[in-house]
Amino acid sequence: AGGRAMPLGKKPQASLVPQLSTTSVLTFEEVAAIPRPGAQGPSMVKFSPDDRYVTYLGSVEAASLTRQLYVYDRETGSTSLVIAPREGSGEEKSFSKEEALRRERARIMSTGVTEYSWAKNACRLLVPMDGALFVQDGVAEGSADSFRRLFDPDAFPEVGTGPLLDAKLSDDGARCFFVWGGEVCVCEVGSAADECAPRRLTLGARGEEGRTNGLADYCAQEEMSRYSGYWPSPGGGALVAFEEVDESHIPPFAIMNAGVDSPHEQNEQHRYPFAGAANPKVRLGVVRAGGAADVGEAAAPSEAPTWFDLSGPFGADSYLARVQWDCGGSSLLVQVESRDQRSLALLRCDAATGRVSTVLTEQSDTWVNLHDMLAPLRGGEELVWASERTGWRHLYVHSADGACLRALTSGEWCVEELLSVDEERGHVYFMGNPRAAPDGGPLAAGEYTERHLYR
Questions:
Q1: H/E element, 101
Q2: What does pTM read for this prediction?
Q3: Residue 93: its pLDDT value, please?
Q4: What totals of helices (H) and strands (E) does the chain contain, helices first?
Q5: How far, CA to CA in Å, does 178 sit from each of 156, 201, 429, 433?
Q6: What's the N-to-C CA distance of the chain in angstroms?
Q7: Each residue's pLDDT tens digit, 313-333
Q8: CA separation for the pair 131, 153 (Å, rounded)
Q9: Contact (Cβ atoms closer than 8 angstroms) between residue 230 and residue 214
């Protein structure tokens, strides 16, 4: 692992070119293979915090699901292997039930190095692998020497057991957060291997069937494309918002595993929320991350969370759709949706007082499409927000109290994805449909399926 340059002519990009049959017709074997012919490309492409490097997950062979972490140096044009999984690690059979379910709901099929992340404001990588958490300080030549495991999970049974899920670095790279044994945990990132002591930030779910802290509920994962259930505050992660889920009132539902040797002995039990029946009970709270001085023998938090009452717009039987921190980390911007999915409210939740206020609402006669196009501006004084209020999804600027100040886009076409906001230059980057046909006339039906990058 770490910093090993690829031989000339054997760059990872070249190996990702689909290796198809020389004939004009694909064989049955090629069509039935996983990954599909031509479907395996780079994934999780990211810039390093200093913008010099581009990192991504790629496969050595075009027909392989096993991924490794690579880096492209924009200054030298060279590509190097950063981290490769150990032989036999990261395979499907090694995942726990919790990990397998999260992968299934996120539609992840790859093995090996399946995820990684950069600290937002520090050249530090986090790589979950082999049932543990590893960090590396940068990807420049020689940085492989800093590759290290944060702690030995087997050495802290009083803190947690089982898989380490949904790991994240604080913006400054000084802390690592994760969910362990149904609780949100944290450790300070040290400079040497296995010198970090994990501790719990939440209580009440460990060992309790049907209860979790920090994991997205089933409805959020399966129906709303939200796969995380906790959110560290900007900067050093001094505060952590988290979702408390209670599904103990939902009867277990048995799923037969017909493809195994003993299907009756290996039935899966899931608390499945059927349409029209009870959904998981969800609460949103905030807890302090504390510091190393807070670590005691029980490695448990010393103060209770601040809870938010999100039932104001639509009652208790609603969906927690989206959560993110506002600028500065003093309040949360929370989207809740009604049970019939025809109404959505954007709420502001004060982390210090627990006070909740409504910023704006969206209504539809059919349903409100969820999105991730919300960006605070000017220190939280304004918001970029996407709305379908005209029948077409466009970007708007709202004041902090919800008043619409101006439209950024308009017309009979849709904004699909908000990529970035450059406040310094006054630019917004987004993906969208074509705004007009090449001849200037109306779009043909097929052209609405195209996506283009706009500024």
A1: helix 97-105
A2: 0.87
A3: 63
A4: 4, 32
A5: 14, 10, 31, 37
A6: 38
A7: 999 999 999 999 999 899 999
A8: 8
A9: yes
